[in-house]
Design brief:
By secondary structure, this protein is an alpha/beta fold. It has 16 helices and 14 strands. Strands 4-10-9-8-7-5-6 form a seven-stranded mixed β-sheet, with helices on both faces. A three-stranded antiparallel β-sheet has the order 11-14-13, with helices on one face. It has a two-stranded antiparallel ribbon with strand order 1-2. Strand 7, helix 11 and strand 8 form a beta-alpha-beta unit. Helix 1 crosses helix 3, helix 2 packs across helix 3 and helix 7 crosses helix 13. The protein starts with a helix and ends in a 9-residue tail after the last helix. The relative contact order is 0.13.
Length: about 475
């Protein structure tokens, strides 16, 4: 390819990927010549090709700028629905983004946290002198007090602040795998897709045990897998499991720990959705039942109080020293301003009203969506009531392959997350899906569930019996 073609292709790719946006000024021809070591003639020809494609336009005496693309070219292109579909492709770009993995930011009141950040930064210089590998002392103290009030005794010295909940999980996995010298993890599924990706990235095998929604933990099968697979740890989300929103019973939690102790296994607990409970109080985490320090407890405010602040934490029990060493080698420490803001917010008590209102809004959305689903989805659809979080799990008629319906739904401005994203073996049910009800607006999207139900019904084979 000629230098002209290479240059025009590079800028075209930058425009199509959104790195250069409509209205952005293109680099001057002189700068392009210097940066790419080409002649002015080559640069002019490349820009002329981009003009012919309708991607840029010349402005008199002002160089070039990126043009707004026609609506037909900007139309949403559905991601693949085969094995290469990834959950992060299900963004909030569509009108009804019910497959999105993130909380709807419109539900979060960011004003109190913004004010807390402003006030906290007045002490920033002083806080710098005391910042260490464990995290901001003020935040660790507030977290320990909050857990204590909820009936969970966490030693403040055990807590380590991380860059979001994902770093906490990664540190836990790495610490256990290194100390135990084993290359497998046992995951209770369904589970969130990034966990599988992380295990693969770390070169670890992943054994799984599926827990059908609403069913107790199969302890006999779990012990059989432990004996067969010899995992370094069990990874579980006992409360508000992603994607079902369901919890293990206290009896199952205690039995799980007893089993782990008998086989001298660590248990990595993800309690990310802890603050989004729909009952009178948050259920006890697995960590509350831990007497031997085998639970590596991971949590975060990223799904509730502070999306985007990237503040998580881990209480690693007997694995604390190893986790601290890994943290030092990976990210050294967690950014201080976001920790200070959360500490100030927690100490002032405003977070309780924020969380209470957020839970109310989520429950309102959930009940409205469930009412629409009951009225418009195919007969035989089952939907367990989430106990917290912002996801609704749906099991559809067995003859329906939900993933095959996704491209058509996206053409109508709707997406959802097919069940297979949350499994890594043949136990994935093709006829199930996850919906994010934080993005459901009963007033503006009142016809969306009916439309999705109709599209799903169209994919049921004639012998499957439509409504």
């Amino acid at each position: 390819m000629s230098k002209t073609g290479q240059l025009s292709q590079r800028f075209r790719h930058a425009i199509e990927q959104g790195q250069l946006r409509p209205g952005d000024r293109m680099p001057s021809l002189r700068k392009v010549c210097l940066d790419h070591k080409i002649s002015i003639t080559t640069a002019q020809r490349a820009y002329a090709e981009l003009e012919k494609l309708g991607l840029i336009e010349s402005m008199p005496r002002s160089g070039f700028r990126v043009l707004e693309r026609p609506a037909t070219e900007r139309a949403w292109r559905p991601p693949p629905t085969g094995d290469d579909l990834r959950v992060e492709q299900l963004t909030s770009a569509l009108p009804m983004p019910w497959g999105c993995p993130y909380m709807n930011p419109a539900l979060v009141n960011t004003t109190p946290l913004s004010k807390a950040l402003t006030r906290a930064l007045r002490d920033y210089r002083h806080a710098l002198s005391g910042n260490d590998n464990l995290g901001y002392e003020g935040l660790r103290r507030e977290l320990a007090l909050r857990y204590l009030a909820q009936g969970v005794a966490l030693d403040g010295d055990e807590l380590l602040i991380t860059c979001g909940g994902m770093e906490a999980l990664t540190l836990a996995i790495r610490a256990v795998a290194r100390l135990e010298g084993r290359d497998a993890m046992l995951v209770l599924t369904p589970a969130f897709p990034a966990l599988f990706d992380q295990l693969e990235h770390l070169g670890l095998r992943c054994a799984t045990l599926a827990i059908p929604p609403g069913q107790p933990l199969d302890l006999a099968r779990l012990e059989q897998l432990i004996v067969e697979q010899q995992p370094a740890a069990i990874i579980a989300m006992p409360n508000f499991q992603h994607p079902t929103g369901l919890c293990l019973s206290d009896d199952d939690k205690a039995a799980l720990l007893t089993l782990a102790e008998r086989h001298r296994l660590a248990v990595i607990e993800d309690d990310t959705y802890r603050e989004l409970y729909f009952g009178e109080a948050a259920p006890l985490p697995l960590k509350a039942f831990d007497q031997r320090g085998r639970v590596l407890y991971c949590s975060s405010f990223s799904k509730s109080l502070a999306p985007g602040y990237r503040v998580g934490w881990i209480a690693a029990g007997r694995y604390s020293d190893s986790v601290r060493g890994l943290k030092l080698c990976s990210s050294l420490s967690t950014p201080l301003p976001s920790q200070m803001a959360l500490a100030r917010l927690l100490s002032g008590g405003q977070h309780e009203n924020m969380l209470s209102l957020l839970r109310q809004r989520l429950q309102t959305n959930l009940l409205a969506m469930r009412q629409q689903i009951a009225a418009h989805f195919p007969a035989g659809c089952r939907m367990p009531m989430p106990q917290g979080g912002y996801f609704q799990w749906l099991t559809l008629p067995e003859s329906l392959d939900a993933g095959r319906c996704l491209p058509l739904a996206m053409e109508h401005g709707i997406h959802f997350a097919p069940a297979r994203l949350f499994f890594r073996d043949a136990s994935a049910p093709r006829h199930a899906m996850r919906l994010n009800f934080s993005f459901f607006d009963a007033l503006q999207q009142h016809g969306g569930i009916a439309l999705l139900g109709e599209l799903l019904s169209q994919h049921i084979p004639a012998t499957g019996g439509q409504r």
